[in-house]
Amino acid sequence: MINSMNHFESGQAGQAGGLLIVGQSVFSDEISQRVSARGFMAERATSARDAVARVSQGDIYVVMLDLASSQVTMELADTLQGLPGCPPIVVLDSVPTIDRVVDALRIGVVDYLCVADNEVEVIDRLTGHLMKGQATHMRLAQPRRELIVHKDMNSAVGLPGLELNAARRMLVIEDMPILLSSIELSLIEALIQRTPNLVSYERMASIAFPTTRDVNHALRLLRPHIARLRRKFESVHNTRWRISNFRGQGYVLQRIGLPVSVASDIVAS
Length: 269
Known about the structure:
five-stranded parallel beta sheet; alpha/beta; 8 helices; 11 strands; 19% strand
């Protein structure tokens, strides 16, 4: 159990950073102590509103939802994922169920921790996510001139107002940096490569979930990821880009005011 962990020496992680724990239980209290012993700062959010406000402020490397407490539900992960700068989310659960784990993966949670797992493994996995989040945060703070402009594979011209750095999982829309989940990254890469052409629903689903053989199930899993990606575009004021849904066909990355390569009798929504 987590509350039986031995103490770790401090300073292993280097610079102090941010783990935001949403909810409170004896298990997350113990994790907070172990994370601090490894050189990372741990903060607590006791409500969904508090969590949204704290994530929006930045300087959070990883969010941990403590489902072992009574204050947190999985729906909060979906809400946080819709924020432009949401860091990776992990879940801590005392009694995980298959449905809850599947829901977490569908939403885009990067790891699902169980309080009954090996205590050293739990902290090691969480520390690994914190170190990756720290590296991403430091790269985002570097001068913007170091960003890589992602160009259309079939064109010598880049996409004005849209830049993608795949290595950093960062999309810049009209000078606004936005962090992407791994699934969102794969989806936007496909859309950028095909713009101004449409990408079918089936192709998008196969890109996001390549190991899922049930096409209908993959399409159901796809929808919330596309919805969050579209909300991130819409969160940028005066953006000239949007992800359009052409009913019965698929999605296209569209520069507002310019035509796309789809049949003229298909209506965008």
